[in-house]
Amino acid sequence: MKVTEHIEKANGRTLFSFEIIPPKKGRNIQELYNNIDPLMEFKPPFIDVTTSREEYVYIDKEGLLDRKITRMRPGTVGICAAIKHKYEVDTVPHVLCGGFTKEETEYLLVDCHYLGINNVMALRGDAMKHQKYFEAANGGHLYAKELVSQIQSLNTGKYLHDVVEADYKSDFCIGVAGYPEKHLEAPSLQTDLKRLKEKVDAGADYVVTQMFFDNKRYFDFVEAAKNIGINVPIIPGIKPIAVKRHLQLLPQVFKIDLPEDLIGAVENCSSNKEVRQVGVEWAIKQSKELQEAGVPVLHYYSMGKSDNIKAIASEVF
Question: What distance in Å separates the CA atoms of residue 295 and residue 12, rounded to the nearest whole number?
Fold first, then answer.
């Protein structure tokens, strides 16, 4: 079932969903199951699975460093299929512009179609560590709206290079990212909203926001989005703070602001165990207010651990 169909079927009830990261290659999928199992009691209608882009590693060969390209967390589509089979829940693989050609994207989407996966999250992805700005792969997309357009073309039976006459069309429900405090590369929030509308106009069916810690940011963002004609569901993304260094790391990486009350509470903690509890309590407060406002879904960034997400969900759902 599509994400949008789950939202419609809920008839105004706020749903629970979460996002997981594939284990590093060489690790066992059972680790993933161990973190998913405790969250299934809250009946998530869908689970997101992230995709990691390529990165460079350096191998010592007789005193010389040989640069090789690799993916440390492959297997997104396989994990989606495994989760779908094991838990009988819909899955949402993340599809990136970064590191993929248009042809590779088409192959991935065809695999999803074969497996009965009909939800995808279309993202540009981040720049590689050595890049100052994002660069498209040779033969790939530079912007997420281009990726959305390719997926939408597949939904109409149009494949790359017009080499296939399709008897069966895909029917992907397409999610995209939204930024309540604007994307870090956008010159202004209004400009960023225009880019979001371009993605929706290209065929996006719903939006999931980047994490935020002040609900007013989300409410203002939704209102501004509606004012420029964005009428698809906008799902808030929630991440509980877990360690003290998040006070520096999250604003630095995601260019977001943290409320002074939250900063003060974290700074007063004497251990990361206390910080984790502050993060849980703050996320519960956020979640309840959003739920009361009638948001369609509360989407949690679990980052591979589920104990704090379970503690939050137990109080909210």
Answer: 8
Assessment of whether the complete model's pTM goes beyond 0.90? yes
Torsion angles phi and psi, residue 92, rounded to 5: -125, 95
Long-range contacts of 311-314 (CB under 8 A, 24+ apart): 311/280, 312/238, 312/240, 312/280, 312/283, 312/284, 312/287, 313/16, 313/39, 313/42
Residue 164 has pLDDT above 80, yes or no: no
Cα(216)–Cα(222) distance, rounded to whole angstroms?
A: 10
CA dihedral 76, 81, 82, 84 (to 10 degrees): 120
Catalytic residue (one of 19, 106, 146, 181): 19
Report d(CA 105, CA 108) in Å as an integer.
5
Q: What is the DSSP letter of 170?
A: -
275 token code pair: 């910080």
Residues 6+ apart with CB under 8 A from 304: 20, 21, 23, 35
What is the Cα–Cα distance from 131 to 149, expressed in whole angstroms?
26
Amino acid in position 21: I
Q: In the chain, which ranges are continuous DSSP H helix?
A: 3-10, 30-36, 76-87, 102-114, 144-155, 189-202, 215-227, 246-254, 260-267, 272-292, 307-316
Task: Determine the Cα–Cα distance for residues 159 and 175; give it in Å rounded to an integer.
Answer: 20
Helix (H) or strand (E) holding 66: strand 64-70
19 is catalytic: yes
What does the alpha-carbon distance between residue 140 and residue 146 come to, in Å, rounded to a whole number? 9
pLDDT digits (tens, 9 = 90+) for 36-48: 999 999 999 999 9
Task: Determine whether 67 is exposed, middle or buried from the number of CB atoms within 10 Å of its CB (0-12, 13-18, 19+).
Answer: exposed
Q: Please, what is the average pLDDT of the chain?
A: 91
Residue with tokens 């040989």: 66
